[in-house]
Records
---
Amino acid sequence: MVESKKLLNDPTDIKQQFSIFSEFPELVYLDNAATTQRPQSVINRVNNFHQRENASIRRGVYRLSARAAQEFEAARSAVAKFFRAPQENCIAFTQGATESVNIVARSIIEATLKPGDNVVVSLMEHHANLIPWQMLCQANGAELRIIPVSELGDLDLSELDTLIDARTAIVAVVHISNTLGTINPVEKIIAAAHQREVPVLVDAAQSAALYPIDLTNLDCDFMVCSAHKMFGSFGVGILYVHPRYHRQVQPYNYGGGIIRSVTVKETEFLSYPYLLEAGTPNVAGVIGLAEAIRFIETLDRTSLVKQLHQLTNDARQKLASVEGLSLLGNPALSSSLLSFSLDGMHPHDIASFLNEDHIAVRAGQHCTQPLLDHLGVPATVRVSLSIYNTPSDIDKLVGSMQAMKSFWT
Ligand SMILES: Cc1ncc(COP(=O)(O)O)c(C=O)c1O
């Protein structure tokens, strides 16, 4: 009998796989929404590729090139399987979630977007899932419609049935807000949009690593995320396109690697997903992403997510006791991140003070300026947790905040 391997659910054990914490033992890393750290297995896989396997793909018949190409395509299969895509060829590799959204806007939606049409997004979108649609609407005489956000930081879906109508070209919505932590009911939004045969893009940048996404069940039309927020490398993104849209996809960049035949007069392109991957891709990064997925599959994500939610709730309660501190929103369902501000102190000063205690947090608008404008807050400090954060990290954060408060008052 094959013994099934025990999945990891202890943050302290998991932390040992991340060499950055042995390099910097005092580091309290609470900026996981910006990028996660990389486990040793991913670092080794990428290094090994550079040391022993490096070759460009697609254009070589020699062994190294063929092997690299094979690994690259194996990564595509691994990603498709991980997200339970209906077919392997639904996954294109891009430079990141930002580029993936731009591709959907420019290579799929633009061709049929007419004056008087509309695009629906929410007020809590990251600029990456707002500006491409804003620009597209402006250029094509279409209207950008906004799903509002309540004071608590939840999407207000009461008007969804009028926001989405027969002229809606796409609904593009974030799964987990990178500023509030809100977990949005994307299933409900997809159902409402599909009733009118409107496609839905899900921005899964903040959810892809730890919240199981089953694309076959979810049935969204497009999904985007970034490898570097999934324990993988920078510069690699994922774009999922449902098979029903494959024939509509046009090349995004023109160049080598995406053609069936070329004459000086015309070009015949490969089909989706290959026609989106012009030029030489980040082969090491893509292969590293497959390793990151292997790493994620060693984790007991259900248990870890539960622990992370508990830890984030503890952090909320403890931080709320710091005099003058206001938490931004209190969504019905929230993930492992929170934002706050402190009376009389600029978030950048708070982040600098925390840095003195080796605590890494992010301060600013988190690429969600319209959301912060709406909530009447110029900027916040954002604390975002991942699988290697422990209760002691939260105690250090709260202790440092309290020390800061007494230092400044
Ligand atoms: C919700 C969300 N969407 C999109 C992005 C853009 O990701 P990238 O910068 O990797 O393209 C981010 C990055 O923080 C994000 O948090």
Note: The pocket of pyridoxal-5'-phosphate is lined by residues 33, 96-98, 126, 128-129, 174, 178, 203, 205-206, 226 (CB under 6 Å).
---
Amino acid sequence: MASWSGTTRRRALTGAVAAVGAGALAAPRAEAAGRVAFPAGRPILIRRATVVTVDRGVLPDTDVLVEGERIKAIGRGLTAPATVIEAGGGLLIPGFVDTHRHMWQTSLRGVGADWTLGDYMQWMITKWGPLFRPEDIYAANHLGMVEAVNDGVTTVTDWSHGLRTPEHAEAAVDALFSVPGRARFAYGNTFATDLGWVTDGRVDRVLRERFTGRPDQLVTMQLALEANDTEDGRAALRFARDRDLAVTSHAGVFGFSGDEQIRFLYEFGALSPSVTLVHAGSLSDGSYRRIAGKGAFLSIASESELSAGQGYPPTAKARAFGIPLSLSMDTVIWWSGDMFSAMRSTLSADRGLAHLRAHEAGHTVAHNALRAADVLQYATLGGARALGLDSLIGSVTVGKRADLVLLRTDTAAMTPVHNPAGHLVFQAGRGDVDTVLVNGRVLKHRGELTGPDLPRARRLAEDSFAYLRSRIPNADWEAAMNPPR
Ligand SMILES: [Zn+2]
């Protein structure tokens, strides 16, 4: 085990002791504030919520009973010996599912606000990425997990392509398991010159040692890679197929990849429902037809595509060809981890393009084709389907795992709520996330994290950033922060 791990565990222990002390002091204040305790093993009854099921419409004034890891019952006037959460009409939704986030970049949050994709490749990938130590990967992923839970993203795909060595991969996985949110570890390595790392034993070792292969493990694993028609590309895809590992690839990225990649994947038999293609905005109709025909998913990162320039968010093409969609945030080095923002920008991009095309043709759009409820589905059940987890998560459904998000509706912006899906997309934000359950466990309540340790996450990220910044020449930092217009 690498030495950083020991350091991390010692820190974790110190943090835990500190937390116990702080908790003892804070308890009277918490009780005064009416904080609810959630004893392990005791069912939880969420009372009088506006339940946005995603798969069966909206259920007003409805109770949801959570027993163990699962949703036990949904109905009106439910009674059970349980810890009660009074929803007061708040919106109860399935947790968001992000299908593409480079969590190893979290400690550099916001640096690239004015970057293009070229700027990102120059600074983040070429110059700074190789500076990351395993503990930097851990710190970023840990903070990313805390952020996801806090924001109601109950499943986040760590598109982990900063894993130069097996120690980096261990650190990434350790961090995902360190917070009890749900995650998909997508093992990648953008620094390698070929895909030999897929088959050289390191991926198999992580798979064997850390993952059960069961979909209900809180963290599951897949591969993140771009395979082309080369010997190592074919070997990597065979490796994934032999192990039943899902694959996610950046695709249809202007200047980087196009129809040739899709044609190869199609002809090699590597397009399937266990493949998620990220961006996919710069492709021909023939490629969209091939993707649709094989049931592969797209991950739309609309804020990324609109700002960085991979290609226009292809939601209209996906609808035209019947390609299932999920949403993602890509990286917080530019944007936020805010899935409300993802829904909003996706809907706006789709409608904006339709209006532009109509005006260019001399007419006007009579009715919007893409609806708020559609992008809410992409952000929840769509993501669950893309990850092959829709039998477990993605909707508020009896029998599914209780990955639930309750939004408060007692603020000005959340009053009144007449159109729940529209409200979620255009009115709500991360600050409205009141309560978060993952796998039946309350991780946030009344706006405060109840499990994840934010102070520790912040400290680790600050230490990591201090190290990384010390390795970046001042001239580079200034140039990166102020890219030429
Ligand atoms: Zn990406």
Note: Residues 96-386 form a domain with the TIM Barrel fold (CATH 3.20.20.140).
---
Amino acid sequence: MTTQYKGTVWITGASSGLGFSLVEKYLIKGWKVIASSRSKGALEPLLNSDDGLHSEQGALSFVAFDIANEQSVDAVRNALQQESATLDIAILNAGTCEYLDIDEPDWTMMSKMNHINYIGLVNSVEVCLPMLKKADNPLLVGVSSQAVNAAFPKAEAYGASKAAIRYFLSSLRMDLKQFNIDVSCILPGFVDTPLTKKNDFSMPFLMSSEVAANRILGALERRPFEYAFPKRLSVMLWLARAFPKTWLRLNATKPNPT
Ligand SMILES: NC(=O)c1ccc[n+]([C@@H]2O[C@H](COP(=O)([O-])OP(=O)(O)OC[C@H]3O[C@@H](n4cnc5c(N)ncnc54)[C@H](OP(=O)(O)O)[C@@H]3O)[C@@H](O)[C@H]2O)c1
């Protein structure tokens, strides 16, 4: 018997946090999910499960992908094509975050963050574009960050890589319209994941990855150009842009006491 799926979605950064929650939500909604990351991580139990929802029906499969490795693009596309000829949705979510320590700056981190987050997303587009082009009503989604809406201390590398993603996607939208491919840019606020666990500053309106994934799924039904959430954080960062000197006074890095 052939299983009828609502569609096929490729999700990168699927082994933990937001990506993993997106995998779970799409499976529950009856999608075929191709999950990618370097490790299987939290996906392992789902891939081994025999509850009929996941691997047994082929609903969930895993294709290893280091997004920073340009050399692997063709091989990863071939592996995806073994799972499905076309992709209805690609959610390019994989990413990482490191902060600049201005007292002992590691400037190589700027190119490292840029290479993983931004060039990694570009590599992911190169992987999936031919498969999206074959779908009837495809959607390409990239994950940026609300960090691009106001300056945050120590976020020179992370913020710049996420701003590059936002611009890249806005330009790509213009070029992919002719192929009927929609492009959405997601700008999450603070989400409780392994990525934010290491943060030692206050994270206003922090939400769980399950809640964040639900919000994203709901928003993607409308195929927005951009979706920034939660709105309360968007308003706070709008105020930061309207009153930049106040934002600087409140958030500037304090001198190191040592
Ligand atoms: N959490 C937040 O507050 C927040 C806010 C705004 C935006 N975001 C963005 O949301 C996305 C997901 O973040 P998260 O919070 O869910 O973080 P996370 O739990 O650390 O998950 C990051 C995911 O990316 C994968 N990844 C990292 N480097 C990779 C590489 N070189 N190649 C392939 N996969 C790689 C990781 O898997 P492997 O290590 O197994 O490869 C993991 O699955 C990121 O793009 C992040 O910047 C997060």
Note: The first helix runs from residue 17 to 28.
---
Amino acid sequence: KNLPRIETDRHALAVLIYMYLLYRHPLRGRKVHDVDPQRDEILTMGEKALFIEHPTDASNRPNLNDVKPSELPWADVEKIPYTVCGPYLKILFERAFIEGLHEPAKRPTADEWEQALIKTVDLMQPCQNPKCEQKWFVFDNTLKPVCPFCGTVYKGQLPVLNLYSARGKDNYLPDNYRIMVYSNQYLYAWHANRNVSPNEKLADIHKKPIGYFVFHQNKWVFVNQTLPKMKDLTEDKDVPINSMVEITDGKKLLLSDEDGGRLVLVQMVNG
Ligand SMILES: [Zn+2]
């Protein structure tokens, strides 16, 4: 008998996140292991478990003839693969349901899921197709933004922010953290400093936005609302509170000079 352990909790957490985001179960596909439904359920969830989206073994793909119309399009894994959740969650789903499905030590921790979900929110873009059923999508990090739900290609200039943070004086390292900008998007304290995290321990002073982006007179600008030491390093100018700075390709902006303070490198994507 399986007693609850941290590894089974990690499996359950991965299943919950997958179901919450994709409206389907990661292990319930077409495969039948036993004529006895109870025995089949135990095998499907346990020793014979196979990810419905396994890249090389397609034998457990959902059979679309068996699904209810209300379960579409989410039951269609070809149309909406788990990769629509973006690059950070993609890696964790693979560890949970491919590499770690029968090797519990490889399963992601709750903290890894939290970090990936936070970073994924910053890759969200509104779809430019007003008739799109999903309205928002996660940018896939490929520099060619396309809505995976309706196929609409992003048109126009789109700033992508690559975040670096200070580890000691003048030593900036990449955080593997990107932000896709959209108009009226806010930044928060956890964007300005890597030591701040938007979890249950977040202090009240860190809950207010630090500034926002807006597409203004055909230019992308950032309006600084609360950052006392913000600096435009490209122009070597301070960006005082309540002033704006234009966002252009290659621009370097320092959000905070504290330990863990972030430096932003702007990359312009032309859609
Ligand atoms: Zn769309």
Note: The first strand starts at residue 124 and ends at 126.
